[in-house]
Design goal:
Elements lengths: L14 H24 L1 H9 E2 L2 E2 L15 H9 L4 H10 L6 H13 L9 H8 L8 H17 L4 H9 L6 H17 L8 H17 L4 H17 L3 H25 L3 H13 L4 H21 E2 L2 E2 L1 H19 L10 H7 L3 H15 L6 H17 L5 H23 L9 H27 L2 H10 L2 H6 L4 H4 L2 H13 L6 H10 L3 E2 L7 E2 L21 H4 L6 E2 L17 E2 L29 H12 L1
Antiparallel strand pairs: 1-2, 3-4, 5-6, 7-8
């Protein structure tokens, strides 16, 4: 069994192989120890020859060193001269020691192993502390050969050697922490300026994400760095500016084509140039953002799917990292248009991920200890996600609407029972108004799916939400919500005779007084029509490179034909939400114990239990 010792290979970049090597070494040394007791002659021969080479005839590796040879140093120490002996120990603990130096000394130690008695215990412990696993394969092989010789010739060191090997059974977490502490500032400092070319940014972000494969402990920090830079690009490329740039380019291209048609036929050149025109964003900042978002989306897909198969554990770890970055950076950022689609895309892989994300947003919304601005942002994300994510099952939509409506009614009751006059004040009741708008927005998009399967049950469900009490309360949410949402919600609820909102809307309109720009006259403008400062984070994805993947999971609007007038009185002839194409998805057994990271506060009901109840009632 002693021959097993020569076939151990250790990779410094793979801890599992290191631990396996160390474990095999323990078994092998135990065998060598027994062999030394039973057959000392054979053990002595193995000391002198290993790896198929004669040690005595192997030339030493040339390197720079101080002091004499190991044999001379041990002889001087034996006669009382310890100067070279101390110098040798000092050189062995040098953190900048080279591989060639280690190999040279180990070969000399092997030739003098019979002299390394108990008197040299301190020197042996210094050798055992050498960082051999992080070295080249030649150092690893030489070190293992030295250890084999040592425990064969000096059995007194067997326990010390075994302790050293067993210490490598677990990873060295301190090195990971120090790596993060020193590496992250360097990566942040060298991140290219956001105005650099798309290619420069793409290469840097791609290599940052590759680092997470080799150093998983800093993945969250790297994602935070990358997403922080993406948010800077995102807020500098507003939806309006992107649409204007695309429209202007289309107009310019049409004008150029008309001019060229008057001169000569350019069909071949136009068709050859068409792919680059359609895939490159007209807005320069949006082009850089599009490039980086495509890299990040591809990374998410590669992490979650291994050889085409979904990997649950890796996906959950990535979800937790992205959710932490979401809470720290994305949620507090107002009016970002595209970066949040990283979580949207990840949640599309499994319904359980979408439910965990909704549950996380719900806990933020109903937690009174959090700032109102974060609670309002969470309500905006909740409503937009429910309305736009086609992959969310109807049972989950109903469960979330039940939670929201229950919380809204409790809030109304608490305000009515306080005995004070309640006024319409966004600064005091911001989370309430944003929650009402989330419910209205979700019903606008999802009412067809809620009603088309079973009209009677669907109407009963909408009536059970008691929306009439919400719109008629003293807090008057219809006055605060966006006019477009208010009008669309009023049209839909009147069509199905669920709530009648027009009386309240007309009264609110009379309370909105026009404001003149100057005393000299001029155009009149009404007061702020967006007091909630609302934005809908999952409005259509405008970037081009990855939109082909998101289009299957996103619920879009479609326009009726010009001749359709049946819903004109209900404000529906312009736009109406498209019926869901994926309504058969139901919660599966992806992971029944999978929950989002804990947060303060607890909802009056659990989202999972409500989903189960709604599935039973409406299936």
């Amino acid at each position: 069994m002693y021959l097993m010792f020569i076939v151990f290979y250790v990779s410094s970049s793979d801890f599992r192989r290191q631990a396996r090597c160390a474990a095999q070494t323990v078994v092998c040394w135990s065998s060598v120890f027994q062999l030394n007791k039973q057959r000392p002659a054979l053990a002595a021969w193995w000391v002198m020859e290993i790896d198929g080479r004669d040690f005595l005839k192997t030339p030493s590796v040339k390197t720079v060193r101080f002091g004499g040879s190991v044999a001379e140093t041990l002889e001087k120490h034996k006669h009382g001269d310890s100067s070279d002996y101390e110098l040798l120990k000092h050189q062995l603990v040098d953190p900048e020691i080279k591989d060639a130096q280690i190999i040279n000394w180990l070969q000399e130690f092997r030739s003098s192993v019979t002299h390394l008695t108990k008197d040299h215990e301190q020197l042996i412990y210094t050798i055992l502390r050498l960082p051999w696993l992080g070295r080249s394969q030649a150092v690893v092989d030489e070190y293992l050969a030295f250890l084999g010789n040592l425990v064969s010739a000096q059995t007194v060191y067997l326990c010390a050697c075994l302790n050293m090997v067993v210490s490598h059974f677990t990873p060295n977490f301190s090195s990971s922490f120090s790596t993060s502490r020193f590496l992250m500032p360097i990566l942040q400092e060298n991140f290219p300026f956001i105005q650099k070319s798309s290619r420069t940014l793409e290469c840097y972000v791609h290599n940052l994400l590759r680092i997470t494969v080799y150093v998983p402990s800093i993945r969250r920090d790297l994602l935070e760095l990358i997403i922080g830079k993406l948010l800077k690009l995102d807020v500098n490329a507003s939806r309006t500016h992107i649409e204007e740039a695309e429209e202007n380019r289309v107009q310019t291209q049409k004008a150029e084509e008309q001019t060229e048609e008057c001169l000569f036929d350019m069909d071949e050149d136009v068709s050859a140039d068409e792919p680059t025109r359609t895939t490159v964003m007209a807005h320069p900042v949006a082009e850089r953002l599009d490039t980086l978002m495509a890299v990040l989306m591809a990374y998410i897909k590669d992490v979650c799917y291994v050889d085409g198969s979904f990997h649950a554990e890796r996906t959950k770890e990535l979800y937790r990292d992205l959710l932490t970055v979401f809470d720290k950076l994305i949620l507090p950022t107002h009016a970002s248009c595209h970066v949040q689609y990283t979580l949207f895309y990840l949640c599309s892989f499994k319904p359980a991920l979408a439910e965990a994300f909704l549950d996380h947003l719900w806990k933020i919304l109903q937690n009174p200890s959090l700032p109102a601005v974060l609670r309002q942002a969470a309500a905006g994300y909740l409503g937009s996600f429910l309305a736009r994510a086609k992959f969310i099952p109807l049972s989950t939509v109903r469960a979330c609407l039940d939670l929201l409506s229950s919380w809204i009614h409790q809030y109304i009751y608490s305000q009515d029972s306080c005995g004070k006059q309640v006024c319409c004040d966004v600064s005091l009741h911001g989370p309430f108004y944003t929650s009402c708008q989330a419910v209205f927005y979700t019903i606008i998009f999802r009412h067809r799916a809620l009603l088309e399967a079973n009209m009677k049950k669907g109407l009963e469900y909408l009536q059970s939400l008691n929306l009439e009490q919400v719109v008629m309360c003293q807090l008057n949410p219809l006055r605060v919500c966006l006019p477009s949402i208010t009008n669309m919600f009023a049209a839909i609820t009147r069509k199905y005779q669920v709530v009648f909102c027009y009386t309240i809307i007309e009264r609110n309109n009379r309370c909105v007084l026009p404001v003149v720009r100057s005393s000299a006259g001029g155009d009149c403008v009404t007061t702020n029509t967006n007091p909630l400062d609302s934005f809908f984070p999952f409005d259509p994805y405008l970037l081009k490179r990855y939109t082909h993947c998101l289009i299957y999971f996103h619920l879009f609007w479609f326009t009726y034909s010009a001749g359709s007038k049946e819903d004109e009185d209900d404000f529906l002839c312009g736009e109406t939400p498209q019926a869901e194409g994926i309504v058969g998805l139901t919660p599966n057994s992806y992971d029944s114990n999978f929950h989002s990271p804990s947060s303060l506060g607890s909802p009056p009901n659990t989202l999972q239990s409500l989903i189960h109840t709604n599935t039973l009632l409406y299936s």
